[in-house]
Specification:
The complex is a heterodimer of chains A (97) and B (163). Chain A contains 3 helices and 4 strands, in the order H-E-E-E-E-H-H. Chain A has 97 residues and is of the alpha+beta class. Chain A is elongated and about 90 Å long. Chain B is 64% helix and 6% strand. Chain B has 8 helices and 2 strands; from the N terminus they run ααααααββαα. Chain B has a two-stranded antiparallel ribbon. Chain B starts with 6 loop residues before the first helix and ends in a 7-residue tail after the last helix. Classes of the chains: A alpha+beta (97), B mainly alpha (163). The interface between A and B is large, with 34 and 45 residues. Strand 4 (57-61) of chain A pairs antiparallel with strand 1 (113-118) of chain B.
């Protein structure tokens, strides 16, 4: 028998196996494998661009207040107010163009 | 003969063009429709005001009942409507005070918001609609209730032909 599998090594391997088994039991609950832990997602506000198969693009703010806090609330609202005006201009182009 | 203000035929033309020329599934259609509704609701307030002045003139009482009564009904409804003036001053003919947007943002909270949508963005003529702006104004004014708009538009009794 090689030295590697001598009594002291066998005890070591056995204790490792027990520890491994104990760890795997911790991940189980009611016979089901516990869901994997997911790292906390970033709470950083984001501007999300999505595009569907028809080419329609949507711009979303993951958090309007978050973006407002980052830019400064007054600045953010000044932009939004200008876009309100642009929306009207674009609609009225239809009747004047 | 009673003459309608010029803005009513203009709105009717905009409405007709939007219905006939723009695809109903497009971003542009709903953006234009929103402006038509805002303008019509604001105009209802203005008409209520105009009819109030007219109702104070002796000529108004001498009108035939079939003409006077519908105008009187419209005056009462639009002049005294609880939110029409707010709508007219903050959403229809103006962009809304910054305070209204700030209140809208506070009410809207930290959720996810559609800022804008655009049709077929490969096309240089892609149409864009900015949803967040109107959402914040309507939230800021507590005017997200569609029933108020339907009530006002129903009271218009149809828009006359511009031709």
């Amino acid at each position: 028998m090689s030295k590697r599998y001598g009594p002291s090594n066998r005890r070591l391997l056995e204790s490792r196996r027990k520890r491994s088994l104990a760890r795997s039991k911790k991940t189980r609950k009611n016979g089901r494998v516990a869901p994997p832990k997911i790292a906390a997602t970033s709470s950083e506000p984001r501007v999300v661009f999505t595009r569907d198969k028809d080419g329609r693009m949507t711009v979303e703010l993951s958090s309007a207040t978050g973006i407002a806090d980052k830019l400064g609330k007054d600045t953010f609202l000044a932009f939004v107010r200008c876009f309100a005006g642009l929306d009207r201009f674009l609609a009225l182009q239809l009747s004047t163009g | 003969m009673l003459r309608w203000p010029r803005s009513i035929p203009c709105l009717a033309t905009l409405y007709r063009l939007n219905s006939n020329v723009v695809a109903t599934s497009s971003v542009a259609y709903w953006r234009n429709w929103k402006v038509i509704v805002l303008s019509t609701v604001g105009l209802a307030h203005e008409m209520g005001d105009a009819l109030q002045i007219l109702a104070g003139r002796p000529v108004f009482r001498s009108m035939k009942a079939s003409v006077r009564e519908p105008l009187e009904a419209a005056r009462k409804k639009w002049r005294k409507h609880p939110v029409l003036s707010k709508f007219r001053n903050q959403a229809s003919f103006h962009l809304g005070d910054p305070d209204v947007y700030a209140r809208g943002l506070d009410i809207a909270g930290s959720g996810r918001f559609v800022f804008s949508e655009s049709d077929n963005c490969d096309d240089a003529r892609a149409e864009v609609g900015f949803q967040l702006s109107i959402d914040l104004v309507l939230d800021g004014l507590d005017l997200q209730d569609d029933s108020m708009v339907i009530d006002v538009l129903g009271g218009l009794g149809g828009v006359p032909n511009s031709g």
